[in-house]
Amino acid sequence: MAMIVLFLALLGLTNGLNINIERQCDKINPKVDLSDTFSENIAHAIHSMTVQGLRLFNPKVTEKNSVPTVNHNVSAPDLVVPYAPNDPIGHDFNTDAMNTIDHILSHIGLSDDGLGPYWSPIERVAHNFHMWDLWYRVHEEFESTVRDNPPKQDVCDCLMDTDHNGIRAAVQWVAEHYKSGTPITLLNRPIPKLTDAATWQVWKDRLLHYYDNNAAHDAALYLYCATKDF
Question: Taking the model in full, what pTM does it have?
Answer without folding.
Answer: 0.88
